[in-house]
Write a sequence for this structure.
């Protein structure tokens, strides 16, 4: 009996995740492979930090199953090679924060994918994926991040999206899809140029969206447009600089605030 | 007419004793084959040796190695080796447990072999064998704190069992990362060479053992049955 108890205790100790001095678990390619390869599962609440780049081959890199998890990429990069339609980091639980690093190459998939509430992304550079940051949950907050050369930058057509101080450039369809929320202090440029139908910098889907203090330029078809067929929605526009968009913003919705914008091609 | 052999004579004249002897012979042969299996079992350990150059010593960060102060003497450009030892032989890609990991920088008289566990994963990708190695120090819990050795490199998959192979970095991955003192000590390196001298060997008993076993069997048989065919 004692032997069994000892064995179980020893096994449990071996299976316990390794914690850093500050309580942070380190993750790198070697630890991922030693744990059985990608996708690497993070199921225990806490803080995690990359100790090196991760390179996945057409597979999801990380699956976050636990709630209240902070993942610090620590300046490192998560790359997918030969990727087709898989998410890069998939969070299935509440209050996930992903910060401080680069994610790229999840072609046809969503690089940072969230399915529930409390998602936060900060200081992330994300490129060359299907969607840079996407959520099927109720909300996502993206700050100080760059979403470059994806098909979609931020995909939150049914969510409350907060995007502050981001660079959202070169996305083929839409820079930001948003149901409601705050889009402030961003550079939103050259989106929609390879896309089809209604597309552009910020496309909103019928909620209440406040767009202010952004540089919105070079987008096709809209700088700020509407993506739902009923033309419903409430839009506030303030202190934005528009330039070089085919249409700076849509005028068929209820624009409750429209002041201090600098427009190059449309009515302000 | 051919005379009856001693085995037939024995069976005819004393059948019970003949059965006893047959049993002894069969038992003897079972022991022989069991011994042969043991001799063939991979009870030896193979070693893969990696070499390369230090690219980041401790002067970069200004940190001082505490747990192993020999690491403080390591300098950029030093040649290092890492010996990865494992039970048996590696024939195909997969994940293998390491029985020892030894990092050595001869120029600095620095070494690190205090690893409590190790894992080596080999993945065949587009004609290349990609190696991912994790060596853990202290205990499983504090390994991830930053007390570990990581290797990432690749070689042509046709050269798995060769020596003097040119190894190269896996794109985007750090080739050598030695973390100690809860990641306050970090030494990095490039990887240039790979050797697996024992890899082509198939586990077999030695020729001497085979001859001796065969000789013993024949001697035993001759003693029991007179050494002639029935």
């Amino acid at each position: 009996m004692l032997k069994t108890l000892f064995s179980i205790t020893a096994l449990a100790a071996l299976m316990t995740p390794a914690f850093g001095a500050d309580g942070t678990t380190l993750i790198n390619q070697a630890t991922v492979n030693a744990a059985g390869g990608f996708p690497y599962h993070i199921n225990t609440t806490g803080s995690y930090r990359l100790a090196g780049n991760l390179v996945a081959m057409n597979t999801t890199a990380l699956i976050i199953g636990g709630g209240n998890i902070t993942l610090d990429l620590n300046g490192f990069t998560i790359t997918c090679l030969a990727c087709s339609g898989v998410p890069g980091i998939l969070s299935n639980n509440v209050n996930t924060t992903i910060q401080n690093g680069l994610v790229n190459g999840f072609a046809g998939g969503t690089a940072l994918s969230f399915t529930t509430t409390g998602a936060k992304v900060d200081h992330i550079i994300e490129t060359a994926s299907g969607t840079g940051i996407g959520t099927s949950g109720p909300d996502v907050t993206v700050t100080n991040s760059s979403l470059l050369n994806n098909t979609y930058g931020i995909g939150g057509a049914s969510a409350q999206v907060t995007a502050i101080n981001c660079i959202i450039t070169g996305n083929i369809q839409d820079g930001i899809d948003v149901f409601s929320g705050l889009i402030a202090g961003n550079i939103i440029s050259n989106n929609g140029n390879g896309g089809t139908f209604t597309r552009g910098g910020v496309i909103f889907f019928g909620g209440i969206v406040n767009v202010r203090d952004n540089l919105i330029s070079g987008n096709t078809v809209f700088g700020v447009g509407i993506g739902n067929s009923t033309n419903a929605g409430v839009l506030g526009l303030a202190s934005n600089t528009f330039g070089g968009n085919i249409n700076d913003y849509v005028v068929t919705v209820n624009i409750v605030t429209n002041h201090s914008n600098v427009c190059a091609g449309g009515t302000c | 007419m051919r005379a009856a052999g001693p085995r037939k004579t024995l069976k005819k004249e004393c059948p019970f004793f003949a059965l006893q002897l047959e049993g002894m012979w069969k038992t003897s042969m079972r022991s022989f084959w069991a011994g042969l299996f043991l001799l063939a079992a991979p009870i030896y350990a193979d070693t893969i040796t990696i070499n390369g150059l230090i690219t980041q010593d401790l002067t970069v960060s200004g940190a001082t190695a505490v747990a192993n102060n020999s690491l403080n003497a390591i300098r950029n450009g030093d040649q290092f080796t890492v010996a990865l030892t494992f039970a048996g032989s590696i024939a195909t890609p997969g994940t293998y447990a390491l029985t020892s990991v030894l990092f050595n920088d001869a120029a600095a008289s620095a070494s690190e072999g205090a690893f409590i566990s190790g894992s080596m994963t080999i993945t065949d990708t587009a004609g290349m064998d990609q190696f991912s190695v994790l060596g853990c120090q202290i205990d499983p819990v504090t390994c991830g704190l930053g007390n570990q050795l990581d290797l990432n490199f690749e070689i042509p998959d046709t050269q798995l069992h060769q020596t003097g192979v040119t190894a190269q970095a896996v794109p985007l991955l750090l080739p050598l990362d030695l973390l100690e003192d809860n990641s306050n000590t970090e030494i990095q390196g490039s990887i240039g060479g790979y050797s697996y001298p024992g890899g082509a060997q198939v586990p077999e008993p030695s020729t001497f053992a085979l001859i001796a076993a065969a000789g013993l069997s024949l001697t035993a048989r001759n003693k029991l049955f007179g050494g002639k065919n029935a």
